[in-house]
């Protein structure tokens, strides 16, 4: 374990801010004020320049993505912006680079850093806050999200990938193969024997069913892969997507399942689900056969969150979320298996 990893989150924050300050020179922003927006895996700071302009600076966690994968993420975000889809504007350095690497005396492994135009607005919610009981608001929100998802899939299914483009895949192997992208969820040490057997059974069935789903551009392309409330920003009445850290190649139904997974216990879930589907169908075809696979992709999504815990058990966030994510995954697997028996 590195010196940095052994520090408390508070002390880690001190050294990350030092690294952020060192990074500002690459954009000609030396001396700007920094305030922490979020530190869970990546660290995000608001940069307030002397001329009144604001920016969002992101420090990536070490070892999650390669340099090529991060550059590819930023290339896709720029292409989405060019096509009219509302995502944060990527700001190159003064010498034209999309991201830089920095280290400090304590953070000795270089961290990748990038910069975006600031978005005025606020996340539309969080898992802790939930959707609330305003059905009209939920209907509009998820219809907008459905349309946005469809437009994003329209762009990604037609886009010619730049040379050297590299992102992970939420495909069969990335979800339930021998080495899933977020880890071997069925080996999570926090599972009891009954839960482990249940998830192994679910994994076997997911594997068989995913093997039968085609990967044509109609159903599979680049996806955002993290349509949760805290990644949806209201900006002057426009829905804007943020946080493409998990973006990769995947089935479009996995995208929609991710948007629905954490809200299934909300009173307005039926409204949100139907609005998401209806909004999507306004912009892109979605067959009833595709929708029949929703439970498959909801269960695959549930499993990934257990892999996420297993690969990050040293973090306070993973430890705090583990009981709830395990409960949800168990209940989702039971629904999936009972519906397919």
From TrEMBL:
Q: Which domain of life is it from?
A: Bacteria
Write out the entry's keywords from A to Z.
Kinase, Transferase
Biological process (GO), any one:
threonine biosynthetic process
Coiled-coil blocks: none
Q: Which InterPro entries match?
A: Aminoglycoside_PTrfase, Kinase-like_dom_sf, Pseudomonas-type_ThrB
State any single GO MF term. homoserine kinase activity
* Residue stretches making up the Aminoglycoside phosphotransferase domain: 41-285
Similarity field = Belongs to the pseudomonas-type ThrB family.
**Name of the protein this chain belongs to:** Ser/Thr protein kinase RdoA (MazF antagonist)
Which organism is this protein's natural source? Halomonas organivorans
């Amino acid at each position: 374990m590195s010196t940095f990893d052994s520090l408390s989150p508070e002390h880690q924050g001190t050294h990350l801010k030092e690294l952020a300050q060192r990074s500002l020179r690459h954009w000609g922003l030396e001396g700007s004020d920094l305030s922490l927006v979020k530190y869970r895996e990546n660290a995000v700071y608001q940069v307030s320049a002397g001329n009144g302009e604001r920016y969002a600076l992101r420090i990536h966690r070490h070892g999650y993505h390669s340099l090529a994968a991060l550059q590819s993420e930023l290339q896709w975000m720029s292409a989405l912006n060019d096509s009219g889809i509302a995502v944060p504007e990527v700001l190159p350095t003064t010498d034209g680079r999309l991201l830089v690497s920095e280290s400090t005396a304590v953070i000795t492994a270089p961290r990748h850093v990038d910069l975006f135009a600031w978005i005025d607005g606020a996340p539309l919610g969080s898992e802790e806050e939930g959707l609330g009981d305003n059905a009209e608001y939920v209907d509009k929100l998820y219809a907008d999200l459905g349309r946005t998802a469809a437009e994003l899939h329209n762009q990604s299914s037609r886009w010619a990938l730049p040379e050297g483009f590299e992102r992970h895949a939420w495909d069969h192997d990335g979800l339930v193969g021998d080495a899933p992208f977020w880890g071997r969820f069925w080996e999570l040490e926090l599972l009891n024997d009954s839960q482990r057997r249940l998830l192994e059974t679910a994994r076997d069935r997911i594997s068989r069913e995913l093997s039968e789903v085609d990967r044509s551009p109609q159903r599979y392309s680049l996806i955002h892969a993290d349509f949760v409330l805290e990644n949806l920003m209201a900006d002057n009445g426009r829905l804007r997507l943020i946080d493409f850290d998990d973006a990769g190649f995947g089935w479009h139904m996995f995208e929609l399942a991710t948007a629905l997974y954490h809200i299934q216990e909300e009173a307005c879930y039926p409204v949100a689900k139907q609005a998401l589907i209806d909004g999507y169908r306004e912009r892109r075809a979605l067959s009833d056969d595709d929708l029949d696979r929703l439970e498959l992709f909801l269960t695959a999504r549930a499993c990934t969150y257990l892999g996420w815990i297993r690969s990050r058990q040293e973090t306070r966030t993973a430890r705090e979320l583990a009981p709830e994510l395990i409960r949800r995954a168990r209940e989702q697997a039971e629904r999936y298996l009972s519906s397919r028996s």
